[in-house]
Amino acid sequence: MPTLILVRHGRSTANTGGVLAGWTPGVALDARGTAQAAALPGRLRDVPLAAAVTSPLQRCRETLAPLAAARPELPLHTDERIGECHYGDWSGRKLAELGEDPLMAVVQQHPSAAAFPGGESIRAMQARAVDAVREWNGRIEREHGPEAVYLMCSHGDIIKSLVADALGLHLDHFQRIHADPCSVTAIRYTRLRPYLLRLGDTGELAGLAPHEDAPGAGDSAVGGGAGAP
């Protein structure tokens, strides 16, 4: 099955302003985020991409714009299922203010029980994102083969929830995962299990190009692997 490269959008005006943006319109990349996005094509230059999928939100579309310009042949799709969590009444509010709300402790310590007033639950957010990845994995494999690599540009909580799913972690542990703006997280999916290849990587990415000894190319014995005692 394909390898998925998850890119968190570059730093946004909401990030620097300490605001929970959610689906608030007009949230753009700030100057640093624009520079991060401009560097993304160079970081990915050695990685063949079958397709790119983006959240519909402006900050994600702006993050992928330089990559799309550098690779005009790259198919670019939009999928609302990898859009930010619907924070409802919390959208657009200062994080410092929200920190005083009793719900914030639930969001941080027991997220599987958290639902945002006027919005969605964190469980629902993870479910739609996982469904999107499963469907895109199948589509990319059918159209480009099992060794294909594709990219999704999404948001921090979405990426964290997808990593938790890939690692078999309960959703209550997803707050232990972190991905910086414009960082790359890579998951190699196979028939039996996913492999987390990168988490929150802000460096070069040439190692993500397909190669014969990629994880999942053949399942080794328990405890196996070259050089294992």
From TrEMBL:
Signal peptide: none annotated. The keyword Repressor does not apply. SUPFAM superfamilies: Phosphoglycerate mutase-like. Keywords: Hydrolase. Residues 208-229 are annotated as: Disordered. Gene3D superfamilies: Phosphoglycerate mutase-like (3.40.50.1240). It holds the Pfam family His_Phos_1. The keyword Transmembrane does not apply. NCBIfam families: MSMEG_4193 (TIGR03848). This is Histidine phosphatase family protein. It comes from Streptomyces luteireticuli.
